[in-house]
Specification:
The protein is mostly helical. It has two domains: about 100 residues, Endonuclease Iii, domain 2; about 100 residues, Hypothetical protein, domain 2 (Endonuclease III, domain 1). The protein has 13 helices and no strands. The two termini are about 20 Å apart. The structure holds iron/sulfur cluster. The site of iron/sulfur cluster has 13 residues, from loops.
């Protein structure tokens, strides 16, 4: 299912984003980062490793890495080939090892061995761009400086019509700017986590389970095979369900059974979340 820009009015977008946020809180009240960590350094390392890799794979690799290099000073002094051997299965292991050791050195040299807690300082670390910095700031330091935009959040932002200035669902910079406009600041981190969970559990890239999605009656892409808006839908709960309005619009839609509106909950599978 190819994502496509959804055009809606600003008022409708704000209403929809508020309703999406409300429902995500009900669906995933404990949405959090799937990368295992108990310190800012471990979250930073895991996030760097998660590029083009599943969280599940990263979580298999990090215990050995953290056991061997428990502090930034030890990681900064590591032999690159030793780090590469441990993280090899996460892919791009040479570059990741270089960034991990480089980041640890900067942390030791400029930040007294502690992961910095500001966007400007984090962006000085090798291998850290805005997305990784947002993960560290939002998840560990509880600072909403921006919205993490990974592959799931990019895709769902497009499908749900929460972005209007981005070229496509890969345009992370514009998507983040749009989400920062339509979402209340104190929801930035939560909505990021919850959209990742929803993307993994329900709104998959190739085959979204719209018939099991509790957002379907406010989602402009619901029951749309190629991502085209199937019908203009409002945020009002009282409106006729989108599934019924959509049912008469195309042969493919008519062939679909009525949505069961099954609700999903619980921890995400952790299958994929490149940051
Ligand atoms: S209704 Fe379908 S396209 Fe929209 S968020 Fe739910 S699963 Fe994704």
């Amino acid at each position: 299912m190819k994502s496509r820009k959804i055009r809606v009015s600003p008022q409708e977008r704000v209403k929809r984003s508020a309703e999406v946020t409300r429902r995500l809180h009900k669906l995933y009240p404990e949405a959090d980062c799937a990368l295992e960590h108990d310190s800012a350094l471990k979250l930073l390392v895991a996030t760097i490793l998660s590029a083009q890799c599943t969280d599940e794979r990263v979580n298999m690799v990090t215990p050995a890495l953290f056991a061997r290099y428990p502090t930034a000073r030890e990681l900064a002094a590591a032999n690159p080939s030793d780090v590469e051997a441990i993280i090899r299965s996460t892919g791009f292991f040479r570059n990741k090892a270089k960034n991990l050791i480089g980041a640890a050195r900067v942390i030791c040299d400029r930040f007294n061995g502690e992961v910095p807690a500001t966007m400007d300082d984090l962006l000085q670390l090798p291998g850290v761009a805005r997305k990784t910095a947002n993960v560290i700031l939002g998840t560990w330091f509880k600072k909403n400086e921006g919205v993490v935009v990974d592959t799931h959040i990019g895709r769902l932002s497009h499908r749900l019509g929460l972005t209007w200035r981005s070229r496509d669902d890969k345009d992370a910079v514009k998507i983040e700017q749009d989400l920062m406009v339509v979402l209340p600041r104190d929801e930035w981190t939560f909505v990021g986590h919850a959209l990742i969970w929803h993307g993994r559990k329900v709104c998959a890239a190739r085959k979204p389970a719209c018939d099991q999605c509790t957002l379907s009656n406010i989602c402009p892409s619901a029951f749309s095979f190629d991502g085209k808006p199937a019908a203009r839908v409002g945020a009002s709960q009282g409106r006729k369900p989108a599934s019924k309005r959509i049912a008469g619009t195309s042969r493919a839609a008519r062939a679909k059974p009525k949505p069961a509106r099954a609700r999903t909950s619980g921890k995400a599978s952790g299958k994929r979340a490149p940051r």
